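ingest -> validate -> predict -> emit
validate: passed (alphabet ok, no gaps, 83 aa)
predict: started
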Amino acid sequence: MNKKLIVSLSVVMALVLSGPSPGRAQKGPIKLGFLTQMTGGGAAVGKDMSNGFMMYLEEIGSQIAGRKVEVIIEDTQGIPPRP
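emit:
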């Protein structure tokens, strides 16, 4: 094997072994951000989207992978982000 391959494999193994283990998984709620237009011309569509998303969460018990889900809904006011 050439030297670059051995070094590359060593780096990959070090990264894999240093990653989070199942015993160190985060606890607490999962926080989701939901951006939609809640005011202005498209408010009706934005409210329908957020209501549909919240209804789905209620159907699944407001949990993902056994953790409670908290949703933060923000109004974009129909203004696109600046580059």
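The radius of gyration is 21 Å.
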